[in-house]
Design brief:
Layout: H1 2-21, H2 24-28, E1 56-65, E2 68-75, E3 78-103, E4 108-122, H3 129-137, E5 139-151, E6 156-169, E7 181-194, E8 197-206, E9 213-223, E10 228-234, E11 237-245, E12 248-264, E13 271-290, E14 293-301, E15 303-312, E16 320-324, E17 331-340
Parallel strand pairs: 6-12
Antiparallel strand pairs: 1-3, 1-17, 2-3, 3-4, 4-5, 5-6, 6-7, 7-8, 8-9, 9-10, 10-11, 11-12, 12-13, 13-14, 13-15, 14-17, 15-16
Length: 342
C-alpha cells in the first residue's frame, strides 16, 4: 500500500511538471483524433455485484451437528425388526480449493477440488452392521469441479458449472468404485443491468436433495443500498445480506445440501446407497481478519430433508427402498478460515 501511494504521488508530480513545460502553442497543435474514441472500447459484465460476499479460493473448516435420533433402522439379520439409534454428534472437516485458471474481462475459468467428512458418534456400540459402519468409517465426499463465467457484453453473461464427486462409507481405499460417483452440473443465462443487480435463469442436475433431480435455477444477486442486499441461487440457497462494512457481513437464509453415498453392507445385494439431503436455515457472519484472510461462522438448524437407504440404485431405472429414517433435527455450527479473491 505504501509503495502504491508513492507511485501515484510520483506520477502526479510528473504529470504536473509536464503540463508546465507544454506551452499554449504546442497544446493547440495536438491532434486529438489520434487518441481514438474511448466509447468504442467493448465492455464486459463482471461476475459480482457491489458489496457481495467475496469468492473463496481456499477454505478449511469444521462442522458440528449436535445429538439426534436415527429411527426405523433394520436390526440385522432380522430386517423386520426396526430400532432407533441415538447419535451424539455428526461432525467433520470441510476443505475446498477454487483456483482461477483463466481470469480476464472476457472469461473467468476456475478449477476446484473439495473434501468433506461426516463422522458419526453413537451413544453405545450398536449390534447393527449398518450403524457400526457409519460410526466406524463415517461418510466421505471428495470431488473436482469447474466453473466458467462468460460475459457476452456489458449486460449479458453465461455461467457453466460441473462437478464429479466420489461419495461413500469407505472401509479402505480399495472400496472406492464407479458406483460411488455422482455427476452434477448447472447452466445459466443472465443479465446485469447495473453494478448493483444481476440475475439469470437456467437448469441444473443436482444431488443436493439426496437423490438426482433436474430443476430450474434462478440466480439473483442485488444490492439495495450500502447496507442491505441479497444473494440467491434458488433452489440451492438464498440469503439476505447486511453489510456493517465491506469487511464485516451478516447473512440470514438457508442452504440445501446433500448427495448420494455408496456403502458396502450385509444387505441382500451386499451394498446400499444412502440418499442424504439436509435443509439448513442459518445465520452466517463473514469477517475480514487480515489481507485476504476471512473468518466465516455459521449457526442454524439441520433439518432432515431426506435420509433414504436404497438396496438398488440406477438413475435411469426404478429404485428399491431398503428403509428410510426420519432423523430428528439438531442445531449445527460451522467455522472456517478462507483465503478470498480481491
Amino acid at each position: 500500500m505504501h509503495r502504491f501511494i508513492w507511485i501515484c504521488t510520483a506520477m502526479l508530480f510528473t504529470q504536473v511538471s509536464l503540463a508546465q513545460v507544454i506551452d499554449s502553442t504546442e497544446e493547440e497543435s495536438i491532434d486529438y483524433s489520434n487518441f481514438g474514441d474511448a466509447g468504442g472500447v467493448k465492455r464486459y459484465a463482471t461476475q459480482k455485484t457491489i458489496n457481495q460476499t467475496p469468492n473463496r479460493i481456499i477454505s478449511i473448516g469444521y462442522e458440528y451437528q449436535s445429538a439426534f435420533d436415527m429411527p426405523n433402522v433394520p436390526a440385522y439379520p432380522d430386517n423386520s425388526i426396526r430400532k432407533t439409534f441415538n447419535a451424539q454428534r455428526f461432525s467433520g472437516i470441510r476443505a475446498q480449493v477454487n483456483v482461477p485458471i483463466v481470469s480476464n474481462t472476457k472469461i473467468i475459468w476456475q478449477m476446484g477440488a473439495n473434501y468433506w467428512r461426516s463422522g458419526v458418534n453413537f451413544k453405545a456400540s450398536p449390534a447393527n452392521d449398518f450403524i457400526a459402519a457409519l460410526g466406524t468409517y463415517g461418510m466421505h465426499s471428495a470431488g473436482i469441479n469447474t466453473t466458467v463465467f462468460k460475459p457476452l457484453n456489458e449486460k449479458n453473461f453465461l455461467i457453466f458449472q460441473a462437478s464429479a464427486d466420489i461419495n461413500g462409507v469407505f472401509e479402505r481405499f480399495n472400496d472406492i468404485n464407479a458406483k460411488a460417483l455422482t455427476i452434477s452440473g448447472t447452466a445459466i443465462y443472465g443479465w446485469k443491468p447495473s453494478d448493483k443487480n444481476m440475475y439469470g435463469f437456467g437448469v441444473a442436475r443436482t444431488y443436493r436433495a439426496g437423490q438426482v433431480i433436474h430443476v430450474p435455477v434462478v440466480l439473483w444477486n442485488k444490492t439495495f443500498n450500502d447496507q442491505w442486499g441479497m444473494e440467491l441461487l434458488l433452489p440451492a440457497r438464498a440469503h439476505l445480506r447486511y453489510n456493517f462494512s465491506t469487511s464485516n457481513i451478516l447473512q440470514m437464509g438457508y442452504e440445501l445440501e446433500g448427495n448420494q453415498f455408496w456403502m458396502r453392507t450385509p444387505s441382500p445385494n451386499g451394498e446400499v446407497f444412502i440418499q442424504r439431503g439436509e435443509l439448513k436455515p442459518r445465520i452466517m457472519w463473514d469477517k475480514k481478519i487480515t489481507g485476504f484472510i476471512w473468518l466465516n461462522v455459521q449457526a442454524g438448524l439441520r433439518y432432515n430433508w431426506r435420509f433414504d437407504v436404497m438396496n438398488q440404485y440406477n438413475a435411469r431405472k426404478a429404485q428399491q427402498l431398503f428403509f428410510n429414517s426420519e432423523l430428528s433435527n439438531p442445531m449445527y455450527f460451522n467455522i472456517s478460515l478462507n483465503f478470498v479473491s480481491p
